Amino acid sequence: MIAALRTPFTYLVGLSATGLAAIAVIIISLLAPTSPLINRIVRGWARIVLWSGGVRLKVIGVEHVDPSTSYVVVSNHQSTFDIMAHFLALPIPIRFLAKKELFGVPLLGWALRRLNMVPVDRFAGRTVYNEIETDAATTIAQGNSIIVYPEGTRTTTGDLLPFKNGAFFIGAHTGLPLLPTTIEGSFEAWLPRAKIIKGGPITVTIGTPIPTQNLTAEDAPQLRDKIRTEIQETLTELRSQEAD
Q1: Which of 6, 23, 37, 84 is most buried (CB neighbours < 10 A)?
Q2: How far is C-alpha 84 from the geometric centre of its chain's CA atoms?
Q3: In the chain, how many domains are there?
Q4: Quick one: average pLDDT of 235-240?
Q5: Number of C-alpha atoms within 13 angstroms, CB side, residue 20?
Q6: Is 197 part of any domain?
Q7: Max CA distance (Å), the chain
Q8: 3-state secondary structure the chain
Q9: Count of C-beta atoms within a 10 Å radius of residue 165
Q10: How confident is the model at residue 14 (pLDDT cuts 50, 70, 90)?
Q11: Are 117 and 42 in contact (CB under 8 A)?
């Protein structure tokens, strides 16, 4: 019963908060493009959405993040809540690779552009990599970090999917450290395509940054496999703790 009531409440609050935050971001970014208030609005939006969804967020390893450094953040992807959880868990301004269709949505699309989110055409194949890297480099140059979900989509089973190379190409080409993060609990909190939002605990575990200086695109597969193994081991450990 609680979950049934929570679901429409989350949608109502989430849509309202998204609309208001989008308007605020657009206006402030036009007047003061580098205002720190923009990131505070985004974090406030994330906090409201998670609260309305009954999410309790736990963060492990925040000491691994240097607020003065930009990263290519890499994480598994379990549900829509992941985006909000990462905005709150990471003490740095982050921007996402977002599917291109979202940029055509009124208000939301305008806000995404003002936030310098990176559009991704999911049907363009490998030809899109150069464009993504160029947009990502522009966003990073403004002091932001980029977060990439290398599975390319949300898991539908809770299990970790194969990783694609894009995030690791960006890391190698920019020389920015890769920051592995593992999210657990969001799959159960909001199952993909589910009509009921259950809420519950979500844990974001931040790993040790991995340097990429002097690496090339040829090193991307090795970086991919290293970080995927680390995320899988962290998932296994978290789930073992939950079972005890």
Answers
A1: 84
A2: 7
A3: 1
A4: 93
A5: 12
A6: yes
A7: 55
A8: CHHHHHHHHHHHHHHHHHHHHHHHHHHHHHHCCCCCHHHHHHHHHHHHHHHHCCEEEEEECHHHCCCCCCCEEEECCCCCHHHHHHHHHCCCCEEEEEEHHHHHCCCHHHHHHHCCCEEECCCCHHHHHHHHHHHHHHHHHCCCEEEECCCCCCCCCCCCCCCCCHHHHHHHHHCCCEEEEEEECHHHHCCCCCCCCCCEEEEEEECCCECCCCCCHHHHHHHHHHHHHHHHHHHHHHHHHHHC
A9: 16
A10: very high
A11: no
- 55: tokens are 């999410």
Cα–Cα dist 190/84, whole Å? 13
Tell which wins on pLDDT, 31 or 5.
31
The pLDDT of residue 138: 83
CB 155 within 8 A of CB 179: no
Residue 141 within any structural domain of the chain: yes
| pLDDT category of residue 137 using cuts at 50, 70 and 90 | confident
Residue 122 domain flag: yes
| Lookup: tokens for 225 | 């496999």
78 found inside a domain: yes
The single residue listed with the structure tokens 């960006």 is 170
With beta carbons less than 8 A apart as the criterion, state whether 220 and 174 touch: no
